């Protein structure tokens, strides 16, 4: 007997557009051609990934579109190949807590503390796990500079070569330049203190620096370009996008 997995019905373009207007603040800043590309990539991610709700959460089309659209933003110039190792997306209602060993306030120190986990990217072909309440809030308010979907999917991009080292295998010709910028920026803040645009967590490891920088690059591009033009230019080359030239963000 041959079994085939039942495919969920496709989500209509009208539903995707409506959810993006309501929930995806960055989408409003895109030019019409880029918005159409975002819609197509969103539909592809929705249909090709496995979606699972946990802790009693039922997955809705709104959740799928909101998450997929944010995940599609970094790959507008790259198709979906950077996410080929993402097979499943797990959605929780809210954050979970964990006791973990983390980098301390000074270089080379560590602390054990209870932390709220709003997202996680499991290496290799592992899933991406996200907290829905954080996803939808940050997606609607990109001017805050945080986006857990972009953060975790940046990790998955970074992991494509088997390493979470902050050097994503996106555009080989620009990796040496990115590696130099990464080392300069990361080593400049040994005390792991926040600077003008990057929160302290960026300096906990090179991998987190890339993920946090990616959030700010897409959420607050003008501020990043002004505060750290070299970092902005390096990310612009990696992602082949220039979000500082998008329409001005609306604050709400």
TrEMBL record:
Gene Ontology MF: a single term = metallopeptidase activity
Protein name (database record)? Unannotated protein
SUPFAM superfamilies tied to this protein: Metalloproteases ('zincins'), catalytic domain
The entry's cellular-component GO terms read: cytosol
Task: Supply the source organism for this entry.
Answer: freshwater metagenome
PANTHER family hit by this protein: MTFA PEPTIDASE, PROTEIN MTFA
Task: Tell me the classification of the organism that encodes this protein.
Answer: unclassified sequences, metagenomes, ecological metagenomes
């Amino acid at each position: 007997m041959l079994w085939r997995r039942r495919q969920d019905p496709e989500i209509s373009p009208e539903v995707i557009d409506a959810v993006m207007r309501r929930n995806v603040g960055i989408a409003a800043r895109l030019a019409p051609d880029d918005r159409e590309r975002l819609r197509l990539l969103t539909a592809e991610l929705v249909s090709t990934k496995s979606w699972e709700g946990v802790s009693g959460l039922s997955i809705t089309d709104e959740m799928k579109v909101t998450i997929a659209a944010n995940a599609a933003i970094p790959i507008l110039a790259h198709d979906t190949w950077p996410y080929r190792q993402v097979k499943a997306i797990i959605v929780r209602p809210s954050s979970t807590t964990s006791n973990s060993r983390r980098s301390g306030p000074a270089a080379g120190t560590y602390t054990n503390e209870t932390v709220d986990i709003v997202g996680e990217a499991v290496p290799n072909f592992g899933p991406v796990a996200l907290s829905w309440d954080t996803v939808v809030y940050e997606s609607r308010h990109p001017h805050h500079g945080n986006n857990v979907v972009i953060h975790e999917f940046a990790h998955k991009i970074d992991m494509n070569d088997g390493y979470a080292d902050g050097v994503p295998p996106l555009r080989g010709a620009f990796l040496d330049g990115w590696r130099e910028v990464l080392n300069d920026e990361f080593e400049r803040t040994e005390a792991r203190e926040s600077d003008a645009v990057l929160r302290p967590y960026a300096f906990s490891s090179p991998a987190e620096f890339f993920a946090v920088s990616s959030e700010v690059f897409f959420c607050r591009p003008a501020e990043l370009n002004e505060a750290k033009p070299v970092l902005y230019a390096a990310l612009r080359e990696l992602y082949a996008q220039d979000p500082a030239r998008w329409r001005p963000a609306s604050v709400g």
